[in-house]
Specification:
mainly alpha, Arc Repressor Mutant, subunit A, single chain, globular, two-stranded antiparallel ribbon, 62% helix, Fic-like fold, 17 helices
């Protein structure tokens, strides 16, 4: 643990009446990423209902669990996790199968937990680590460090400080007016710094950041950010270490926002390759819309790609129609769903 952070923890221990303020700096990079994520989430929100109807939530949940557990060394693949979800027998290390079952059980309770509640955090840990460690659902009672290549890269605060430090962190989360994208990243970093549990801190920190974000926008319950973190695992740990060395969680915030932005910017095509461009276009409609409004809703920029891949096939299929068919190039031209298009959406929702 850094000397500066140790002094800060001791200071707050002595001055218990002061409100804790995690050290972090809001950089232009962080602000730009918050704005970009908010814009991307706005585009995805229009797809939420149809996405659930197309069972994307199930696909995303599997990818999230796979990514989170893979970071911790679990070797089961997405097909095996799907089989466990379906109640099928899977041949694999018993501990890893148990980890998947626990994660599935935890995500079943996800919508019932409140991110600022200590009791819910402990219950989540109990479910996630059930049958894997002694004392699941309780804060650690001994010292713990983070190892890398046989050396300690972070020594967590003493066990007798954990309850107080977590209370400070929950108090800050309840009172802060920081944007949820920033607040969730700060909480995640501080949680990992405190390392409140004997084991399972990584998966709990990532789970709790998702929970904080889901309270801001429910779409985050279904977006597999964990998959990208797994793909950038070395950077994840490096960002944690850089933030500790700097006594400022800005490097970790910037990293997490980059992961979130990459995920939400590519979420729909990546998690649902079976959803064709035409179907994506149908789900984007909210009444009569211009070509530009549709492009924004779909997150597209290239006009020719949009016209050839999305617009023309849907017009030719009879799923959408022009509001001014006699003047195709009119500046006031808009598009709307036809009865056939609405029937197509209804069929997809029943799949």
């Amino acid at each position: 643990m850094s000397f500066v952070r140790t002094k800060k923890i001791n200071k707050f221990a002595q001055e218990g009446s002061m409100k804790y303020q995690p050290p972090y700096t809001i950089t232009p990079k962080i602000l730009n990423r918050v704005a970009a994520i908010s814009e991307a989430i706005g585009r995805l929100t229009v797809l939420t209902d149809q996405a659930k109807a197309l069972r994307l939530r199930r696909i995303n949940r599997i990818r999230t669990i796979h990514g989170s557990l893979a970071i911790e060394g679990n070797t089961l693949n997405e097909a095996q996790i799907t089989a466990i979800l379906d109640g099928k027998r899977v041949i694999g290390p018993p501990r890893e199968v148990q980890e998947v079952k626990n994660a599935l059980a935890a995500y079943d309770r996800f919508d019932t937990w409140r991110p600022e509640t200590d009791k819910d955090l402990l219950e989540a840990h109990r479910i996630l680590m059930s049958g894997l460690i002694d004392g699941a659902g309780s804060y650690r009672r001994g010292g713990v460090g983070v190892m890398a290549g046989g050396r300690v890269i972070h020594m967590a605060p003493p066990a007798n400080r954990v309850v107080h430090l977590m209370a400070d962190l929950f108090g800050w989360l309840t009172a802060t007016d920081a944007h949820p994208l920033i607040a969730s990243s700060v909480f995640h970093y501080e949680f990992e710094f405190i390392h409140p549990f004997a084991d399972g801190n990584g998966r709990m920190g990532r789970l709790w950041q998702s929970l904080i974000l889901a309270r801001w926008n429910p779409l985050f319950a279904d977006i597999p950010v964990e998959s990208l973190i797994f793909a950038h695992q070395a950077e994840y740990y490096q960002a944690l270490q850089e933030s500790t060395q700097a006594t400022d969680s800005a490097p970790f915030i910037a990293f997490m926002l980059r992961m979130i932005l990459n995920t939400v910017s590519s979420s729909t095509p990546e998690v649902a390759p079976e959803v064709t461009p035409e179907v994506r276009l149908l789900t984007a409609f909210a009444g009569e819309m211009t070509r530009q409004q549709l492009k924004i809703a779909l997150g597209l920029k290239d006009d020719e790609h949009f016209r050839k891949t999305y617009l023309l096939p849907s017009l030719e299929a009879g799923w959408i129609e022009m509001t001014i068919p006699d003047k195709p190039r009119s500046s006031r031209q808009k598009y709307r769903l036809t009865d056939k298009g609405r029937q197509r959406l209804a069929q997809l929702a029943e799949r």
